[in-house]
Design a protein that fits this description.
Layout (H helix, E strand, L loop, with lengths): L2 H6 L6 H7 L9 E12 L6 E12 L3 E6 L5 H9 L6 E6 L2 E2 L7 E4 L11 H12 L5 H14 L15 H14 L4 E5 L7 H18 L2 E6 L2 H7 L2 E5 L11 E2 L8 H4 L3 H25 L21 H5 L4
Parallel strand pairs: 3-8, 3-9, 6-7, 7-8
Antiparallel strand pairs: 1-2, 1-4, 4-5, 9-10
Helix pairs in contact: 4-5, 4-6, 5-6
The structure holds adenosine-5'-triphosphate.
The site of adenosine-5'-triphosphate has 13 residues, from strand 2 and helix 3.
Amino acid sequence: MNAIASAEAAPSLIASEASQHAPARTSAPQPIITLRNVSKGYGSGVTRNEVLTGINLNLREGEFLAVVGFSGSGKTTLTQLLAGLIRPDEGEIMMDGKPITGPSPQRGLVFQNYSLLPWLTVRGNIALSVDRVFRSWSRAARREHVDKFVEMVGLSHAVHRRPHELSGGMRQRVSLARTLAMKPKVLLLDEPLSALDALTRSVMQDEILKIWEEERQTCLMITNDVDEAILVADRIAPLNPGPRASLGPAFTVGLDRPRDKTELNHNERFKQLRNAVTNYLVAVRQKSRRDQSGGQTASIKRPDIRPADLGGPRRAILNSPV
Ligand SMILES: Nc1ncnc2c1ncn2[C@@H]1O[C@H](COP(=O)(O)OP(=O)(O)OP(=O)(O)O)[C@@H](O)[C@H]1O
């Protein structure tokens, strides 16, 4: 690990380390979600796939944490555990000191795929969640609430459209508004922008940031884009490559907010962080590959085969019964 990573590894990311090394700081935000020694795999027997092992994480109240990692390392598995959609094989996941045993409107999840109901309009899709969560509210209050979030994501002009009449970026906005409108305590964003083109992605990054700066909900965002992670997050936690992926030490971003993408490109701290996170990820991937090959450098062994007779009856071989 390089200097920045080691110097800025946030002790509270790793719960076990926190208890050993972190000095008691009364002003530090309390963790809202804690994962202790969490492991999760799929399948059984020879097809068993150990995806996550020994995950320790403190998600602090009000912070924006980005988890970055390579494809297939288990990022979605981690969000599903946090959302309560799946249960860990080992370890515990707590929210406000109580175990997470299933999904809850307190933890809003935005997926990579928008999962909107095709027969409902923009308003209908958002209202469905609002009506369920805020049953005790009057009809007018619920409608006003829906309209507020439609406006927040800039879709007031498209409120009567159905998903097939929207662009990818607009659909993802509906999905975001639907989750935000439920007023979850914790927002879980699972690569919400990865299906979008670069330009729309950039606009949506700014919108997510703007909304987060207004609402200051606790937010965990999964991404495979290091620049995106630095732009949005207070801390960045790298997910080491699987199988048996664990979290590496967190990088503290420490850049002033609000952040401007164009300015960041010239910011020395941004460049240092980008190098530090990228170098860390590349190094752990190389180590993981070495470990998987048993420490051997990959070499190709050629079989010791010599053709007996190249002039033989090839056609006969090709046509022989299998
Ligand atoms: N329901 C499941 N049943 C069996 N295996 C699964 C299941 N969900 C995920 N996996 C496997 O677990 C591993 C991690 O998958 P996961 O989707 O969590 O990774 P990821 O980091 O989110 O990947 P990506 O960035 O490509 O979306 C993969 O090998 C995947 O095939």
